[in-house]
Fold these 4 entries.
Entry 1:
Amino acid sequence: MWREAPTRPAGLARYFSGRWSGNYAPFGAGDLAVVGSRPYAASMTTPSDDQIAMLANALDTFSRRYKLTDTGADRPLTELDNQVLLFVAGHPSCGPTDVARFLDVAATTISSATDRLVKRGLLNRQRLEGDRRAVALTLSEDGEAYVSTYKHAHDSLFRMMLERLLPEERETFLHLISKIAHHDD
């Protein structure tokens, strides 16, 4: 049985942070084995150099072809900044520690990101009355507009990508990309 994907969406940066371990599960054909905490099909082996080069070429082409331009003014936002905005959009009045925990980054990293986003007018920080150390994060009007545009652009892009595939290819692709994305080391 395959392990279920996590229910909360991880940040895009975390999707591709894992590395292939090259483990081999020496069992009968069609069997699944658990190596560490991951299930492996019996036929899994270390990828060849040609397969790695083919994947690298495909991902390079993919990232160039489907690159989204930033919807913000002046400089583009970092991927971390985008993920902070998306998290705050889904969790209004959350604290920086909540964001750091979800994105699995240091609190100081989130502090720097929130400083940048406040300066750009995309995020609001409000001190809580009962605890002057606690901070609630919310999107500003510009932040809400940015997140809306960001989500719409990504949804359109993802729709265009999936429309190029036959329905059964879509299911296979989504299964495989989810398996890679939710791979835990």
Note: The mean pLDDT is 75.
Entry 2:
Amino acid sequence: MACCEDDCAIEGLREKQSSTLKIVLGINVAMFAAGIGAGIYAGSSALLSDSLDNLGDAMTYGLSLYVVYKSSQAKAQVAFIQRRFDPSNSFVLGQVIYKLVVPTVPIFEIMGVVSLLALVGNSICLYLLTRHKTDDVNMSSVWECSRNDIASNVSVFVAASAVWFFQSGWPDIIIALALVCLFLRSAFRVFTSANSQIRAVHSALQISDLAAITINKVLGRAERRFHVLRQCSQQARMTRQIRRASFQDCIA
């Protein structure tokens, strides 16, 4: 009965995780579609970084949704893969280099409006994911993504304000580089956590295999001893029968 209750609780948790991931996946796809167009039109590296991060998050949520019903090892491996693959960092670095060669002033109005809309969307995502952040390494990874998105949106709004105040593209470049550093730092943290869990699972499997080998050896030895004892018993029985027959012949 207790096992049944545990299984039902786990199944219910997985269904809740799946529903939450579907919602945040849809929100991030919509924000990416809106943000990438606005970033290109406004000429903002920070806004492009933010929107491409939404694309990376959407991929992360999709992978996380795939492994909701998988094992802990599969979840750790997905978290490991999620943080090894992030399309935004290299693209944003290329954009920053281009802006250093060809300086431009982005359209701060678009930056400000889009960043605030994205902040609302990511706040909803963070609220939904917070209740699952301690479930496993998979949900911890997606919660980390959502938390970084909040900081990213605020940073883009700050960059828009600074561009308006200074009438310069430098705040946009500086914030874009800061966001890249933030994403890399977060990636390293989740990468380390997932790697540790994968190693722990491998160690547990090795211990389990070693225990199975040991048990097989013990059972094999016991079986061989049983055969020896049975042979000895048969030989003793045959010896008694021979002696009994010889005794009867002598009497006769």
Note: The radius of gyration is 32 Å.
Entry 3:
Amino acid sequence: MAHTQNLEASPSEEASFYASMKSHSESEDCPGEARRLADCAQTAQLKAEMVLVGRKLWDREYVDGNGGNLSVRLGEDYVLCTPTMMSKGDLQPSDICLCDLQGNVVAGAHKRSSELLLHLEIYKANPRARAVVHCHPPHATAFAAIGAAPPHGVLTEQEI
């Protein structure tokens, strides 16, 4: 994701809203900074990129069903993440959740993935980390399920 630098939004960037995000983020439980981040144009652009990455993962068969998750760090205190129980091939920008670093959803219409907790540990361990892409490639998962190592050169995602 190329747009993960300088994620602090100016007040003039607050013109771009998603209807579902706006109504949810205006609730009393959404702090001011989270509301500003949820509604800014830069966040909208990142959500659109997350949707594109999700579709690429689905098209390339790096994820199956509802497996795998994406997250992007927003500033020091928040992340965008994909929701639970949703195919990465079917995501829409309005499906993306805004969470704090404790894993609480502060804006968004869906529950966050339980796997966000793994992503948050990565962000905490490495403050320079800006995004996490976590996949469940079906072929690699099959080898893991039977406790076998895949042969060298067979799985493209393993070689990357």
Note: Residues 41-59 form the longest helix (19 residues).
Entry 4:
Amino acid sequence: MNRPLLPLIALLVGCDLFASEDEDVSSSTTETDPAVEDDEDDTDVPCTPVASFPDADQDGYGDPFGGIMDCDVPFGHVENSDDCDDADPDQRPGAIWHRDADGDGFGDLEASLEGCSQPLGHVIDSTDCDDTDGTRFPGGVWYVDTDLDGHGQAGATVDACG
């Protein structure tokens, strides 16, 4: 049996692996035992420990490398370990990635992939108005060249997607 799992298995079955031979562990519980929870009148109440995992990026998916067992799921933890990058909320199971052929940071709604990690040349955003032209994207501004000198006028702008 894998040694790192012994404490977890012991916790689930109520064993104390670290008790001395002279110690009676069948009736003892401590405040640090995650299978026992204190209620309001200071008596110990047994509980069923649950595994929880930290969710640093708050995307609802936990980091598989940081699980704990406790009676309650602590703040900042979730009950799954499905996150593929807990530092980036966009990288999560079921994320939809959109091709960004022109590299402007805005993707094409019509060209998408589903995946946990960001594929090369794809972004979460799907609002590109022209994925073949990196100068045309939502919020982009073009300056109108009203005097045809090759330079736009500061006061004459149009929406780059318009």
Note: The CA atoms of residues 61 and 83 lie 5 Å apart.
